Task: structure prediction
Amino acid sequence: MKAVVIDRVSKKFLDFYAVRDLSLEIQAGRIFGLLGPNGAGKTTTIRMLVDIFAPDAGQILVLGERPSSKLKRRVGYLPEERGLYKDMKICDLLLFFGRLRGVETRQAKQRVDEWLSLLGLSDWKDKKPRELSKGMAQKVQFVVSVIHEPELLILDEPFSGFDPVSVRQMQSFVFDLQKRGATVILSTHQMEQVEQLCDEICIINRSRKVLAGTLRDVKSSFGQNTVIIDYQGLDTFLENSLVKRVSRFPTYSEVLLNDGADCQELLVRALASGARVNRFELVEPSLNDIFISMVEKE
Amino acid sequence: MLETWTMLKREYLVRVMRRRFIVSTLMAPVLWVAPFLLPVFLISLRSSERAVIVLDQSGDPELFGMISRNLANSNGAGTKFVLTQQIVPAQSDLDEVRASITKDIVLHADRACLVLRNNIFEGQNPQYYASNVTDLTLPLLGNAVTSAITQRRLARDGLDPEKIKLYSAQLPMTAIKVSSEGETSEGGQAFLVSILVIISVFATVSGYSSIVMHSIMEEKQSRIIELLATSAEPYQVMASKLLGVGLVGLTQYAAWAGLLMIVKLAGNSLASFAGFQLAKIPLRLVFYCSIFFALGYFLMATVYLIIGAIASKPEDAEVLRRPLFILNIVPMAIFWLILQDPSGSLSVVISMIPFFAPTMMMMRISLAAAPAWQILLCICIMVSSILVSLWVASRVFRMGLLLYGKKLSLAEVGHWLRYS
Result:
């Protein structure tokens, strides 16, 4: 079953196309990564899915229906720019959003208690958002988007600002929701998160889709053109026509080769330059490299 | 429906439960009337004395005594005039005598001089010299002097002193307000009630409308609006905001009606302040105030809602609301036109203009000068205006809600109006 079908959808603001002729299908129960640089059209696409904007052309089906107010209770949304009512207690605030999405008061109270306990925020239930740390507030915002147990959850940059422990905690919540049958759309710039969470991805650039598919297919389609190299010595051997781009990390470098370049040739040049090579491994390109190369190509 | 109700309840309860609401409900009527009543009250409290030397060249031994008696009988509040007679012979130069006193008057603000010249009975005006001639209680002294001169003129013409007393007795005119509810005597009460009515409607309409705008701006700033927009339809967000805040205003009017009932039950002696009796305000007026508050509020709040939706930041909203603020102030500047001739054609026209109607029509109602058909027509005009502004709001609101930090051009707003 398809949770989301976007069929040749366009959205224009005055003379500017935010989304142009976009088609996508997201299978139910998957975690889907919607990627793209700033201003690519991700948020506009999401806003069309949650019925804030209507498309100018094309058709959208969410959980088998056209976006409408009826659907709002089945969809959860964590916007990129998010806030909380400063003058409400955390428990009242979560209860308010639960009620707003049609959860019975008693059930909503029970879920609020469960989530706060799960997040270790039970002692903060009577506090107001201004008394919370940024991380705590973000956790509360996450609960706001899932309090009604949505079938489709859309998370726009859900992990920004979290410490690594909290990221792992939130990731486990996302996997739990998927296990319960929810479909998750994840929009983020953190490619590492996408690689860890997503089954499928779609890259949008300048309002158009530039790449889509399962993460495995996308990566294999780029072939093994990346070399992980751990070396000691000068890096002059990396400055040649074989190399497209180098990402340097404290213990190794990730080298993206140009089309048709031979990795053996690179190894020869490294040794010839006098560098001591501890590790030389040919791997699939990282999603980060794929993303950058697709965006740059455009 | 659940969505609207849930948001409305939050909007209402958050505001009504604030301490600020309770304090403003209790204090607002006092603060509105205080600027008008306080000066009168302070004057009545003031018991300063002014020593007045009466330079009497009239040659009438009875005149000074009569002035003193008239002054004592006037029982006026405020400055107490203490008169001292200094007889000036007819052949002396009175201005020379006065000049010697003038220096003293300049140096001492509590001293004055009253000049009664030798031809005072032939039409010469009495004159009062002091460093302060704007004293509000000065007319009391003036009345005492002119009455005494008239009385003495009649006595000198041989009239019976008893008859003089009868003929020259000052009979203040009583103004009686005639309305469909009967006749009620007036003592400036109608004016003060009108002022109270116009200020209460003005303050509540502009106050609560601003709250709607600030509430939208706050939700845009804190980015809550996107969560609301994905949980409910924009018209539900709009309706809950308008109704929730409007209900807070109506709760305030209900509280004032309740307070008025208590005052009425307690009797006229309570809440009587410098001649103004709260118990004399008819409850009917509070009912009309609630109606016209609601109409004025829905019109103004819808316009403010549009401003809140299309403004990207509070500074922009302040700029956009400026013309409205001026529109709001106009009734405060022209209310005297209504006060002077509440049934005149100009007053009728002004009270039918949508943005002026709530205050101006309320003022006419408080003065019993608006027939039922005019009130009904005014309500119809207001309802039509509200529907038009709601139509505009519904077209602009959805798009405007999600604009953060982007300045809008008129072309964009026009585009939304045409194609939303």
In short: Chain B has two domains: 8-38+184-419, 50-172. The beta strands of chain B are 49-56, 80-87, 111-116, 127-130, 175-179, 182-186, 272-273, 276-277. The radius of gyration of chain B is 30 Å.
